[in-house]
Amino acid sequence: MSTRGAFVVFEGGDGTGKSTQQRMLAGTLAEHGVDHLSTFEPGDSWLGREVRRLVLSPGSGDITPRAEALLYIADKAQHVAEVVEPALNRGSVVVCDRYVDSTLAYQGAGRVLAVDEVETLARWATLDLRPDLTVLLDLEPESGLATIGERDRIEAAGVDLHERVRAGFLALARRDPQRYLVVPARSGTPEAIAGVVLRRVLELDHPWPASLRAAAGRPDAGGRRPAGMSGPGDRLVP
Questions:
Q1: What is the pLDDT along the chain (238 residues), one digit of tens a residue?
Q2: Residue 58: left (phi > 0), alpha (psi -120 to 50), or beta?
């Protein structure tokens, strides 16, 4: 019987370094020969590419909050069926940039929709597939947005929305702390944060190669947990 893969998701506000950490983990897995899939939402399916164009293009017409939420949820339904589930069934480690929590934080909390209603739809659309680990990069929205030059439709939605998004992410992490690693995004170098993320990933039940476990113990893999970081049993940052 083949081993089912592991599902690791990176979440966070815009400009937190989430995508950088996702790429770094995928690169480390590739370096050590781990069968993995690097993917993202919205947009990594044929349907998702059309959704991404609609929801992120500044040239899109007015999209109501409910319509926006349904578009993102449609992307997730297609992405799980077309990309994520087949990879997990092959035994791959799926490393994903954004997933359901982003919809709950942005379209639920950010757009001031009922988060429980959005979640019901999102869980139905994704067959209730949940990550084995969610790494949440946390940062004050103004600091993250300041690093972005030309902004897409969501990035340009205003700091108030992004404050609600941040609060939404942290509320989700508090609700299920065993599944989260919350990382203050400016708590260390990208390499130090990537090292701590890697060691947390290696706690997942998966046949990791010995070379990867050894790499996680090297000084250049990040020697200490950056200040304020939280995982199972730790206090979440406010």
A1: 468 999 999 999 999 999 999 999 999 999 999 999 999 999 999 999 999 999 999 889 899 999 999 999 999 999 999 999 999 999 999 999 999 999 999 999 999 999 999 999 999 999 999 999 999 999 999 999 888 888 988 888 889 999 999 999 999 999 999 999 999 999 899 999 999 999 999 999 999 999 999 989 864 454 444 445 555 434 333 3
A2: alpha
Total-model pTM: 0.90
In the chain, where are the structural domains located?
Answer: 7-221
Domain 7-221: top CATH class? alpha beta
- CB atoms < 10 A from the CB of 218, how many? 10
123, 202, 228 from 110: Cα distances, Å: 19, 33, 25
Encoded tokens for 196: 């701590």
